[in-house]
Amino acid sequence: MDKFITLISILTSLLIPILISPLTRADFISLTGAETAPNIAEIEILNNHLHISLEISAADAGTFWPELPSTKSIYEIARLAQTQKEFAIEVYSPDGKIEPTTTSIRIAERKPRNSPFAGKTDPRTGVRMPDFPSDKTIILANLEFPIKGLTNLEIRPPLDTDGTASVTIGFTSQHGHTPVSSFHYLSQAEPLKIDWKDPWNTQFENQNINRHNRHPLRSFLYVEPRQIRHEILLRPRDLLQWTDQSFNAWQPLTIKRRKQLQETAEKFLLRKNPTTIDQTPVEPVSTETVFLKANNTGFTTVKEHESIEMGSLLIGYREKYPIKELPQSVTIDWKLFTESINSVPTLIQDPAGPFPTHVMPDFPDIQWRNYLYDYRAPNSDPVPVESTIAAIPMAVLFSFCFAVFFILTLRSKRVETKNKHPILFYSIVIICAVPIYYALPSELRIPLPGTINKKELKEITETLLVRLSAAYEEPQSEELKVQLANLVSRERFSYTVQNLSQIYQPLTSSGNKGSIRSIRDLEIEHADQTVVNGNKTFRIVGKWHSYIEDYSWGQMEQLPRETRASIEITQSDNYWKISAFTPLSIR
Question: What's the distance, CA 385 to chain centroid?
Fold first, then answer.
């Protein structure tokens, strides 16, 4: 009985963190719609001050300045607002109301913002979401509150008698470069707790409005067709504590400090979490360390000379393991825990989708098993020519033969019967000439005019584009050349591949090379048939749609793209290959 109770408690401790904690998703999409609110507040804690930048719709100005005289002119509203002493957004400390030391009011344009569901149907409720406000000109109010040394604040919007906001306000907040909340509605008074030593720990009392990616340590295992990737996301604070070094959250990330962190991360993390593939211990073929920062949707890379404090910085460490085909199992023995971190969120992503879980000291293994029953590996095989003998439309061939035979018949009526034998001879020669012509090597014959079958040409082009996408799944550069040799002709190979890589290896916001997926809607705008070096060649201009996809650091990036290009397709060794590729436009 005791063993049974112990087993139940262990399983409960494993499952409860998974069920009650925020899911580590492949991507994060805010469904609040707060970024479409008519009034937007951007709250920032910086240098002992609380800054509030508020975009106010002219229709709601009377709510923010209760004593404002009625007027329809937004310019008059802005002028009169500057004379008002009372402002309806207030900041309180335990000692009472904090008065702003700086206030500026002016006319401005709304900031452009992104919202995935603006004006669309909410997938959860089926209710249409609000669209962006139609008024593009707003009143911009900037306020600055002195909060030096204060650790507890309360931000109050204009309130009704029931304690809810009397006007719709969307807001976002940050401490230094660390987001405190993503876009949410400021619908009530919200208490805020500030950690001056480490901005990562600054948070609202209301957990529903805090940013979703608060875990300081994470693991991401990506099982892909031709490689296994293990990514670790951690804070400099934890890395420096593990390596017995000091940490100051407000130190800037200098070039020297960047180099030191990279060296420390790679030295400490290499072989720290042993990996086995199909029960065989493996070593990474390459490692990489990048610097990231959190934003409202996930993570983005920190540019080389970008200014950011250490407390807002994240270190991304990546190991890559090449594979020929999907294995049956992958196991990582996770060893990174601290006194304060005894549960680490993990995400396992394979072709079937993401699977979030956790590891703990009692259950430290990150395990993937191959349960894919209908998996098909990307196909980058050569595209064969269905028939090496080209065909002239039968109607054209029949008409040509009939015309020649008819002319010769008319001519035969003018000659004597003894001379009619050449007519039969000419007919046989003409009929035999056609198959003899097409039996000759292509370099010894002159191309005859014929119509291009655009349907077949479209199928060939689309197949090549799709198989190129599969070839670019190969992460190893030398192996990638082998895959591309199946689809790109030897002539001008390097130049053609260079142009193809612009399309098939796009850089994403996370700094990675994305993949091209779902190539569709190919439209051939122009096509010519010719012979190049004795090989049948089609020169086409076409456009198509696709998606850029990238899975990294626990998020998925997917962007639609329209590509227009000039493509030269050549028949080479009984295969269709791309002999030239020039991107014309990318949208």
Answer: 35
pLDDT tens for 47-102 read: 899 999 999 999 999 999 998 888 889 999 999 999 888 899 999 999 999 999 98
Hey, what are 44's tokens? 């920032």
Average pLDDT over residues 22-48: 74
211 vs 525: CA distance, rounded Å: 47
Q: Please give the torsion angle defined by the CA atoms of residues 198, 199, 201 and 206, in that order, rounded to the nearest 10 degrees.
A: 160
Q: How far apart, in whole angstroms, are the C-alpha atoms of residue 215 and residue 411?
A: 94
Dihedral angle computed from the Cα positions of residues 320, 321, 326 and 329, in that order, rounded to the nearest 10 degrees: -100
Strand (E) positions, 323-457? 329-333, 344-350, 353-359, 365-369, 383-384
3-state secondary structure of 58: helix
Inter-residue contact 329 to 367 (CB < 8 Å): yes
Helix axes 421-439, 394-412, angle to 10 degrees: 160
Where does residue 24 rank: exposed (0-12), middle (13-18), buried (19+ CB within 10 A)? buried
Alpha helices (H) in 505-538, listed in sequence order: none
- DSSP letters for 494-509: HHHHHHHHHHHS-B-T
Residue 38 structure tokens: 């008519």
DSSP 219-281: EEEEE-SSEEEEEEEE-HHHHHHHTT----TTSB--HHHHHHHHHHHHHHHTTTS-EEETTEE
Residue 419 is which amino acid?
N
The torsion angles phi and psi of 442, rounded to 5 degrees, stand at: -60, -30
Calpha distance 550→556 (Å, rounded): 6
Domains of the chain: 34-204 (no CATH), 217-369 (no CATH), 389-412+422-447 (no CATH), 451-586 (3.10.450)
Q: What count of other Cβ atoms lies within 10 Å of the Cβ of residue 96?
A: 7
Q: How far apart are CA 145 and CA 204, in angstroms?
A: 18
Task: Answer whether 494's CB lies under 8 Å from 580's CB.
Answer: no
Report which residue type is found at 360.
M
Q: Note whether 550 and 514 are within 8 A (CB).
A: yes
The amino acid present at 101, given as its one-letter code, is T
Half-sphere exposure of 390 (CA within 13 A, CB side): 23
Q: Which residue has the tokens 């960047």?
A: 258
Query: Residue 2: in which H helix or E strand, if any?
Result: helix 2-20
What are the helix and strand counts (H, E) for the chain? Answer: 10, 27
Helix, strand or coil, per DSSP, at residue 409: helix
CB 180 within 8 A of CB 85: no
Structure tokens belonging to residue 202: 């600054």
> Other C-beta atoms within 10 Å of 306: how many?
11
Q: How is residue 309 annotated by DSSP? A: B
The model's pTM is 0.78
Q: For 397-410, write each residue's pLDDT tens digit.
A: 555 565 556 565 65
Distance CA 65, CA 410 (A): 102
371 class by beta-carbon count within 10 Å (0-12 exposed, 13-18 middle, 19+ buried):
exposed
Q: Which residue has the higher pLDDT, 124 or 507?
A: 507
Apex CA 512: angle with CA 510 and CA 516, to 5°?
110
DSSP letter (8 states) at residue 434: H
How far is 512 from 222, CA to CA, in rounded Å?
14
